[in-house]
Amino acid sequence: MSSASVSSAPRITPLEPPFPEGIAELLQKMTPPGAPNILALFRVLAVNPKLSERMMGMGGYFLGKPSLLSLRDREIVINRVCALCGAEYEWGVHVAAFGEAAGFSKQEIAAFTAQTPKLDALSARDALLVRMADELHATSNVSDALWLELAAHWQPPQLLELLMLAGWYHAIAYVCNAARVPLEQWQARFPAAA
């Protein structure tokens, strides 16, 4: 079935103001300072407030200061996982919100997004993260050879975080895609060639 014949209407409609009792406070907690709006994803997740409350801890960890990963490493994994899953919503929000701070060039963003990754456009270290995301996506595992390469750059606590980060954004991609979270007006869009 072609994508043109599939409806893009949200399957779970994002909540709109006025929000039910307690939801406004939850959404305020979920929304980072300086965000241009309350994200549609958060307004979808808030349909199940108890789940949303529990998700904030893990999501906040990955995007906050306790993380053991650099912003660049984190965003490479997130961008690649979301691209592999076809999750344009989450990919585009992260490219728009963090791409510049992570130091991504247009060529690197295209390399992260391509169906077949363009590893020659990336540093060897960045390419390792893309390869890890690809292997996890394809096999739910990491080969011994790749693990040895990863372990030369990241310590075991960081490796655990990389694995959990990839899995977390797989789950986020599932929600974005299956619930058909509507795109934000300001987010990046997949390159046409991706």
Describe it for me?
There is one protein chain. This protein has 9 helices and no strands. With 194 residues, it is mainly α. The protein folds into 2 domains: 17-63, no CATH class; 71-178, AhpD-like. The chain is globular, with a radius of gyration of 17 Å. 31% of the residues are buried. Residues 1-5 have low confidence and may be disordered.
SSE order and pairing:
Elements (H helix, E strand, L loop, with lengths): L22 H8 L9 H6 L3 H15 L7 H14 L3 H11 L7 H8 L10 H16 L4 H8 L4 H23 L16
Helix pairs in contact: 1-3, 4-5, 4-7, 4-9, 7-8
CATH fold category name of the largest domain: AhpD-like
* Low-pLDDT ranges: 1-5
Strand content: under 5%
Rg to the nearest angstrom?
A: 17 Å
Question: Count of DSSP E strands?
Answer: 0
What is the CATH superfamily of the largest domain? AhpD-like
Determine the fraction of residues in helical runs and give it as a percent range. 55-70%
Major sheet characteristics: none
Distance between the termini: 19 Å
Task: Encode the helix/strand succession as letters.
Answer: HHHHHHHHH
Provide mean pLDDT, rounded. Answer: 93
> Quick one: overall form?
globular
Number of domains: 2
Level-1 CATH class name of the largest domain? Mainly Alpha
What's the number of helices? 9
Q: What would CATH call the architecture of the largest domain? A: Up-down Bundle
Name the structural class: mainly alpha
Keywords:
globular, AhpD-like, mainly alpha, disordered N terminus, 194 residues
